[in-house]
Design goal:
Number of strands: 11
Strand content: over 45%
Number of helices: 0
Shape: globular
Distance between the termini: 39 Å
Order of helices and strands: EEEEEEEEEEE
Structural class: mainly beta
Radius of gyration: 13 Å
Length: 128
Amino acid sequence: QVQLVESGGGSVQPGGSLRLSCTGSGGLTLDYYAIGWFRQAPGKEREGVSCISSRSGGSTNYADSVKGRFTISRDNAKNTVYLQMNSLKPEDTAVYYCAAGLWASDYAPWLDYEYDYWGQGTQVTVSS
């Protein structure tokens, strides 16, 4: 069964850091896929956080609200994409989802309908 599995969520104080991981399983080789991170806070719509193109990950995008604090990267040997989150704020609290989409290697898709596979989500809570 093709799956994306997120991990690394948790509770942290403002200013803290977390690293989320997104791993493919069941034959899902992330090397070929662009990967996006999305989040959804209670009562709010899902929003894009960051995305990275396939293969070498030469193209990346970030939401304005996380630029300079979050970094997306990929380790194809581990079939994993990471989202390093630093200087976390209470407004970063949400369920974070990763998604995989099959696109040209220089394209980092931003919209949720551009993705084919989704993980189950991992909770991130930033609170003092």
